[in-house]
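Request: Have a read of the protein record below and say how the chain folds.
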Amino acid sequence: MSRRVRMWVLAIGGLGLAALLFAASLELPGFGGDRHPYGDRAVEAALARHTANAVAAVTFDQRAFDTLGEESILFCAALGTVVLLRQTRDEHRVRPEPARVAPPVRRYALVALPVTLLIGLYVIAHGQLSPGGGFQGGVVVATALHLLYIAVDYRALERIRPVGLYAMADAAGEAAYLLMGAAGLVAGTAYLANFLPHGTFGTLASGGTVPLLNAAIGVEVAGGVVVLLASFLDQAVEIVDADDRARSGRTPRHDTPPEEEPV
């Protein structure tokens, strides 16, 4: 097929897609109007299953299968990063040197760390009741741990961040979501269907499977983000000149350029 024919095929396909999108846009409700058919159905379904947060009901109930794909993207990203950035046998890692931290920054970060961690856990636990959920809370929990990097140094972060355990948490969260969907099949309904009792509206136990799927996402996101950040931070390099290296007595690893060595 020549280039000219391919361009004609592309143009015809683009015009056809544009025509379909234009026809679909004619059926959209007016901007700012009071007719919201999708939103009305989503809110009605959320209330029917005792889920106060309609967004969480859409994410973990009405479109739970879509969410499985979204969390799998993060899981695959973390897995791929670990495989690609893993330390090989011929690499020699230099221990990071401690860095001086300004006392105000140190105090603020150490105070903010437990508060931020608590907020992240709260956001995960109340995902079916209020704005937030496993995705948002998981990121907050993961980044809260890295306040120790700001307050002290990288070595202090490494002591509370065994990457292997967080990688296992990432896999466990992904597996829990998959198994919860399979439990629906065992119960005689559809995959990832909300088959559990809906509980009392406005309580932590409300929403059926929504809080369980939300918690699984929180664990997976927190573990995955920690693994990603650990992989990238371990790849940081410090550029020093030859005189500095000679004075410090540090030896660069074999595969780095002459003026670069890992931190």
User: Anything to note?
Assistant: The two ends are 52 Å apart (CA to CA). The CA atoms of residues 43 and 54 lie 6 Å apart.
